[in-house]
């Protein structure tokens, strides 16, 4: 297995937003080239997002698409399986297309182009777009430019038939001007003794945000702007009603919970857990623990287990426990955590203990 030193695109955007924005054209162009190859072979990725784009080289920037766990060989056929990550799923995957569109209950490889549009928005703005309407203002505020906005807008056309195929999208005026100097046909090999310099200036990597700064940063990645004062209040307040009032003023908490869990943003669900109980509640047939297991977000899984999530919850409507979901994806670390959590839940759950006692009593009666 190849070792990827620089992590994934979500980490790159979070740690080096200015550099990611400056390299947006090269990043999106390289992802598009990967999609072109996949689509020519009839393969739909179905879960394209920054976490599934690896930074193979930081200087020059070179990215690779990864995690083909839910990919499908479509060969020109439509698909129906509900998969992918919520904010990167196309409208047709969520049953949101207008009735006059015949594809409203099915989807094609065009969903990958929609997801790429969301990824492009994240690279350019560091935010996930809320899609009541196309987020032109956010792109303009971050200086995306007319060509960049037009390119993202074409990728995120509501009607999948109006989205360009990968080969066509590569010819957009915005991407035609991408600077790929330094990218050659062979794999870049950064010096072993001197790691690639990511920020200039400063020459040293800035300390990652902590506490309320981290909470504010994670909300911003969810498309919600918080002031420093509001972030401090959410991070330090103990009064449940005050926290609830503040969060209610910012939007749909369930959407934040689902997206934050999927993306591994621990501080957001940590705050939400103080006012709402979504641990074992089902969302689209999947509990939050199962969702974290699917995305291999170990830190979130640990938080949920520590806050009382039951690793022994019966299978969802999809017929899989969190452990089975993690096993399907080959997430070894998550599987180990869930096994340990399941044993802990068994030891400390009175319901599970009473159930075992009844089983033992029935077994003893049958022996007589």
* Low-confidence spans: 184-209, 345-349
Strand order of the largest sheet: 1-4
Q: Compute the separation of the termini in Å.
A: 57 Å
Overall pLDDT level? 77
Largest sheet: 2 strands, antiparallel
List SSEs in N-to-C order.
HHHEEEEHHHHHHHHHHHHHHH
User: Hey, roughly how much beta strand do the residues contain?
Assistant: under 5%
Radius of gyration: 22 Å
Residue share in helix = 40-55%
Structural class: mainly alpha
Got a strand count?
4
Structure description:
This protein is mainly alpha-helical and 368 residues long. Helices cover 48% and strands 4% of the residues. The strands form two sheets. It has a two-stranded antiparallel ribbon with strand order 1-4. The chain has a two-stranded antiparallel sheet with strand order 2-3. About 8% of the residues have low confidence.
